[in-house]
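Revision sheet: structure tokens.
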Amino acid sequence: MQEELFLRRIREEFPDVTWTSHRYLTHGWDHAVLILDEALVFRAPKTEAYRHALANEARLLRYLQPTVDVGIPDYVYESADGSFAGYPLLAGRELDVATFGRLSDTERERLAEQLATFLAAVHETPKSVARECGVSEQDPQKDHDDLVRDVETLVLPRLAPHEVRVVVAFLAELAADLPSTPPTCFVHGDLSGAHILWDAENRQVNVIDFSDGSIGDPALDFDGLMGYGRDFAGRVLERYRGRKDEGLLRRAHLYFRRGSLETMADALQGYPCTFEEGYAEFRARFDL
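Predicted:
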């Protein structure tokens, strides 16, 4: 939704909402965002698929609100046609790697504890509730086959021979792991620095953007934590009281590395990322 249209629609739908300043953000993959007076966040899906999902996301978050100890969006504004919705801004800044690096040991311990408690609560969401809210169930075999097709067709032709060998060996390792995937649960699906907010003043975690939630392997929610280092992801797992298995952290690391291949493939299919970003991730995550 274009900026001026978005502002007009908010005024029309919610005349009691007033503001003196706003920020319009379009860098997200799935939604355009308006932040009003640094107090309210309104999101408008960029595609029809996410438009249908927005109301379901709001329903799911209302279910999760009393079950989690961290801050999550509370959609108090929903347009009549489902084209946008808004919630009070959650405090904190995106927990990118640089911000994480500046945290004290005490802050990291508190962060690990809060994330572990949050993940356990999210993963305990009954599948029936998730399905009622329109959450899809992942198909690991199909997802892997699609990835292999895209990587072989689009990515490998752009890589050096030694890099191709690394990727081919990794895809084989990933395929061998598919049969061992444990029973699934509801997962956030994109728990990375862009969606983890750290409120330094209150030493509090807030988590946003549940639009990629699905029923899948719980290790998927430890994937993004690998960006802070395998040791930190392990610290979260130690405190995690959800259902876990011995291979969870290993799979999370596999998914973390897989993400770089997905970014390169997505970039070559027109998604809002660049091949160079994915390639840099690939080189770093595969220690090349």
